[in-house]
Amino acid sequence: MRALIQGLMPHVMVAPILLPMLSAAVMLLMGEGKRTAKLVLGMSSALLGLAVSAALFAWVDAYGTVAYLPGNWPAPFGITLAVDRLSAGMLVLTWLLGACALCFASARWHRAGIHFHPLFQLQLMGLSGAFLTADVFNLFVFFEILLAASYGLLLHGSGKPRVRAGVHYVAVNLAASSLFLIGVSVIYGVTGTLNMAELSARLSEGQVANRHLIDAGAAILAVAFLAKAAAWPLNFWLVPAYASATPPVAAMFAVLTKVGVYALIRLWTLMFAGGPLAGFGADGLFVFGGVSAVLAALGMLASQRLAVQAAAGVMVSAGTLLAALGLGEEAALGAAVFYLVGSTLASSAFFLLVDLVERWRAGTTVVDEAPFLSATLEAQEVNLDDEEAPLVALPFPASTALMGMAFIACTLLTSGMPPLPTFIGKLGMLSAALGSGGASVPVPPRAWLFTGVLLGCGLLTLIALTRTGIRTFWSEMQRARPRVRTPEGLPLVALLAACGVLTLAAGPTMELARATAKSLYDRSEYIHAVLGAEVRPPATAREARQ
Amino acid sequence: MEVVLALAIGILTGSGVWLLLRPRTFQLVVGLSLLAYAVNLFIFSIGGLAIDKEPILADGVPPDLAHYTDPVPQALVLTAIVISFAMTALLLVIIMASRGMTGTDHVDGTEE
Q1: Residue A493's domain spans which residues?
Q2: How far A136 CA sits from the closest chain B CA (Å)?
Q3: Which residues fall within 8 angstroms of residue A466, CB to CB, at 6 or more apart?
Q4: Is A373's pLDDT higher than 70?
């Protein structure tokens, strides 16, 4: 196995992009029917992609950042792909969510419209490309691929609410893409490069003609990413879009906001974590992140719909991550990366659970079936059963137990309660913020603010979800038995089990997250890997052959 | 030349943003298109404006940027044009669907 990967590296790096692209192409050639064949193809692609991503992660963890030149042009000129711990970790997360969401969709949702499967593969392709690319403009292209696929997926199933939310979603993202292009071109105009590694090298060497233009370009670019990461005040599109999307799609969208966060982490650390421009924009990230986390938590409290609360949970998580990045400290970023993984898994599981719960609530209740059965009769325990069977409580069905336990897990995960990974991540961020200067240095006000935001959001989330849980699971007794099919229960359990594994293996995974943050702040590893990537076969050998 | 181009980009962006903030879906499409034109012109101009200079190496011309126009922004703008065109087409489809389902061309799908 190891020898196999060794032989395939670094070419296997491009597999997470090519694999879904080819599957999508094959699916399109199949026409509109043949759902089972497409499902098998999509599922194999997702599982294979997950295996490749895990292999990439293991490789990067052992041997450090690797770069790949798809066009075989030397680094600053051609397009470069690079994988480091953060990219590989995001890839594993994406493909895990992809496999789970696809499995969930196979129960019924993939029948809600045509072309679900190719769009899903293209979504995975765009996500993988965005995580792998080492070129700012190429990042834009992959963003557009994943957004185009997400427009299609959001509208999957059609219906008025989806189309209405779709108009807003597409319009906001198109406007943000314009800002993205403006930012990229300003940065190119000033530094003369689009390669992230070379950009970082040039900025840290101080070879910048016009620092204010760099600041302006970076700020415009950041606004584009903040809009995708749903930071206040650019987040009003998120809740209607995510709450109206079909549940497996929403579960996949949980990682979409994290792409914005990923791009900010990547570019901010490369451009501003050191060198003459160090620390630019950190205050902005901190403020916007904190405000969006608090407002999202309040929004969760204000809502009664589970889907809206799940969508607000995505925003709380993104806001927390942005605020942690804005602290500008390596230790906080390490814990934030850990939190990112845990909270994304939790949001995804939450969207899947919401579907099960809402279908159960909307399903045939006893009151609906029997209009004569009023609440007062029920209270008198009148037995309306023809057979006069004794009124015994239903045996506690396994599906109810699954849904209840999953809801408890999602509540605890979203609000960050011990001992789950989101709690560990939050604890890490807080201890990094509060203990950065040692005991002798007074804690800066920003750290207190951060503490307040994190704990406050956790409390608000907990109250909101507990209230919904009581109303959903306890208050209405007369209800049909929930029906959970295996392909629906399995991904839910898998996602929550992944969170459990993160808790049990918190020590090693936290070490990985710290190592990720360390290499992000160090930057030299990434720069050397990308700029030092060799064309194959080397130019001299090729000339000799000719 | 720079002033004319800067004014053109500014006017296009201004009109685009104004239309983007209007409540009708058609205004939204036109606004986003104008914004895309402005962005494309902006990308095109970011390599510096030059007259009668080639982007590809030619014989007898010293190989430095003073004698050529920067080819990278031209490559970028081609990509950006294709993407913005495709996205506008997609938006039009969604807007048609919204018009058909809600019976109004308001961006919120309702007149209130």
Answers
A1: 10-373+400-437+448-545
A2: 11
A3: A411
A4: no
